[in-house]
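Figure 3 (text version): structure tokens given as input.
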């Protein structure tokens, strides 16, 4: 009598791939920790025995916390968004978060002057921008996904059109600004951890932790959603509710990241693309931790090298965007389509 071997469905094809995953993940976490320590203590102009050493480290800690928040928001939201839309090319930026952020700041300086934009800080301004971006997405979801003819592709198309319109409006207002006002605005629009204010952390950190936990707990359902609408429905998933729920979580993370550090259009795409290559699994229980590790190591290493090696503090986000944009082009050319 032939003995039937036991069958099992696991996240990895072989034990070797699983072992490789854990070794790579632990290595990335270790490198990320070393990069974070380097950002805190390396090249500190104040001697370690000086009373001023701790305040310098504290200021650097605020920047490091902003990097961690941006990494969590961008990595989780991009992976979740690509899974929901079943497309590894598009990013949450298509929904117009950066365009709305740019329009809010450009409209403020255009209507009320540079002084008002400079003073447009604090928790109220932060909450206002986050609430406005989330409200825009909720209206978009409620209008285009909850109706009888709800369609995800239509929602993405409308998001692209709205983003294009907002960018055109902000570009028109920027052309009418004085050169001094334009310089102030550009400093605000460039994605940078220097834009983050420590006053925002007591609000941003709890929200990010709660939403990140909810997304990670949603990993198993993400696995089913990634199989497609028809398959998910046949397996008992309320596809429309699951999609809207996931997109709301994505909207919250993207809104906080954008309002905190500014626009990082291709950062999330770069993280997600490298994550798929590194994790080599369909299981989001393993994809999400890998994306967090890669997202954190990219932003910390980028700031470390630009701050302490090349002395180019103001171009970190530009470098990340360039690498992200090049990666996007490579993926597009390799796939041959969107």
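Below: residues designed for each position.
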């Amino acid at each position: 009598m032939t003995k039937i071997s036991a069958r099992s469905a696991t996240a990895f094809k072989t034990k070797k791939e699983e072992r490789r995953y854990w070794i790579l993940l632990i290595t990335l976490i270790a490198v990320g920790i070393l990069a974070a320590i380097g950002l805190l203590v390396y090249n500190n102009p104040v001697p370690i025995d000086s009373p001023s050493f701790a305040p310098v480290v504290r200021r650097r800690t605020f920047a490091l916390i902003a990097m961690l928040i941006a990494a969590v928001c961008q990595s989780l939201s991009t992976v979740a968004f690509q899974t929901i839309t079943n497309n590894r090319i598009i990013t949450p930026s298509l929904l117009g978060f950066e365009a709305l952020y740019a329009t809010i700041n450009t409209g403020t300086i255009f209507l009320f002057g540079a002084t008002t934009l400079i003073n447009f800080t604090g928790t109220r301004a932060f909450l206002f921008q986050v609430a406005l971006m989330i409200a825009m997405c909720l209206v978009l979801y409620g209008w285009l996904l909850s109706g009888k003819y709800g369609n995800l592709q239509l929602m993405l198309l409308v998001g692209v059109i709205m983003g294009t319109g907002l960018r055109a409006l902000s570009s028109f207002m920027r052309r009418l600004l004085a050169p001094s006002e334009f310089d102030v605005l550009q400093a605000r629009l460039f994605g940078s951890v220097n834009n983050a204010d420590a006053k925002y952390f007591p609000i941003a950190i709890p929200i990010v932790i709660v939403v990140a936990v909810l997304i990670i707990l949603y990993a198993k359902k993400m696995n089913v959603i990634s199989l497609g609408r028809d398959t998910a429905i046949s397996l008992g998933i309320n596809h429309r509710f699951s999609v809207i729920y996931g997109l709301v979580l994505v909207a919250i993370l993207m809104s906080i990241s954008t309002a905190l550090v500014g626009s990082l259009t291709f950062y999330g795409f770069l993280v997600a693309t490298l994550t798929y290559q590194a994790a080599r699994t369909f299981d989001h229980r393993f994809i999400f931790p890998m994306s967090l590790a890669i997202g954190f190591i990219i932003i910390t290493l980028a700031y470390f090298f630009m701050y302490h090696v090349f002395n180019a503090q103001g171009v970190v986000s530009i470098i990340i965007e360039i690498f992200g944009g090049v990666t996007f082009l490579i993926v597009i050319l390799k796939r041959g389509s969107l």
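Residues 1-6 have pLDDT under 50 and may be disordered.
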